[in-house]
Amino acid sequence: MRLICLLACLATAWPASAAEYHPLSPAPAPGLAPDNWLLHDAARNRLILYLPGYHAPAHVYYQWVRLRAGQPLRVSFAAQPGLSVFIDNKLLFRAGKANSYIIDLAKELSGPAVKTHLLAVWQPEGYPALGSFTVVAPTAGPVGKAPARAELPVAQPTPARRQLGALQSQSLLLGLLLVGLLYGTVRSAYPAGLTNVLQVSDVFGATSNPQTFLVRPAFTLLNLVLVVLFSLSLALLLTALHTDFSSLPLVKQLLKVPESATLSKIGLYTGLIIGFIISKLLLVEGLSYVFDLRPLATVHYREFLRTTLVMGLLVPIALFLFLSLNAYWPPIVGVANGFVLIMLTVTVLRVAQTLHQRASLLNLHLFAYLCATEILPLAVLLKLIVFTSPL
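The chain above was modelled as a monomer; its predicted structure follows.
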């Protein structure tokens, strides 16, 4: 009887004790988490976790952050023109030019309570560089409040990024000096051969006589050395133009290269350019067989190689002007991009002229062959390395 009473008392006390236990969900971590970015699922109207290897790059990303007025949360990031930062759908910052910035996410907040706010990063043309968003350690002194202004707040470049830019400029200048020394060494070792290869009058002349370069083998030791020098000089120029891979989303998704590794980026660009020049031979040989134009394949590739090497002599000059005027004349960026555009276009036009001297471009097979081997690769290259972001 006593056992039955004891069990009855336990049964009446159990629901009360169970009702008092409420497991709490973990609070959002303070600051920014590199793996907590969210995407908007338009079909279900909800935010989902962004997985870099699974989801395609998006123009806008979200993240829940815990903020309180009076406790600054300073975030540094790299931004392209037009990048905007929102807190609870309220515009906090907009980038006027490509640079690195530091902003305080809690600057416009009011109220002493710690609340969870929705951070949104939007890049209308391109993709935000999420890997560059980091929390800046708080300083020892008090943070002053900026005066209210009518215009949009513009953050200042970080000192660390300025130092990084100086180090990158020094690396590019050393690379430019190395390219000049190597060109001088090749000029001393192969004076006659270099004169035959880099014959500017033959490239831009209108003569229909076969030049010496077009009847010699394409891959000689001198030509290979010149290809490496051209690739290195163009890699230096591209590294100077694209200070980070945020404007090259395809390269950034395929290859993981730190933004601060200047030498790694130079080596990456050099390898890609050399690979493109060599693979161009396979493309020309394959498509010439498809379009039944095998007699033109050899002349086509040799003309492409010669024009590329001749135009490559101007790349160190363009790089030198870019490094000299970049800090004083911002339009030099557009001039350098225009130079790359002209260099690629002139190469295509010269190849078309050489092929037209041997077979009329009115031939449908030859025109289609030229579009497949030159026009289409030109459009891809221009999209990847020239028209990547607004200037």
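The first strand starts at residue 38 and ends at 41.
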